[in-house]
Write the structure tokens for this entry.
Amino acid sequence: MISTHVLDTEQGRPGAGLKVGLYRGQEQISLQETDEDGRIAELSPAPLEPGVYRIVFHADSGFFEKIEVSIAIADPDEHLHVPLLLAPYSCVIYRGS
């Protein structure tokens, strides 16, 4: 399972309403919006298989249009949390807990 949380560090609040896509290769698996707390509890509607996936944050911040990260999933039963800290001219993606 992959979850995410987006924080708007300029405003000091959750990044609500941000579209986030999950891809395996060129196939889009999911496209969802963050909730009012900036979270998506489960990016994939179906169980994942081992492999490389891309998470695409559609930031549309005026500078960042899209922010993409590729992650390798070895154990599909593991919960991976991939948060994004977003400001107008900087961003940080990390593996959360």
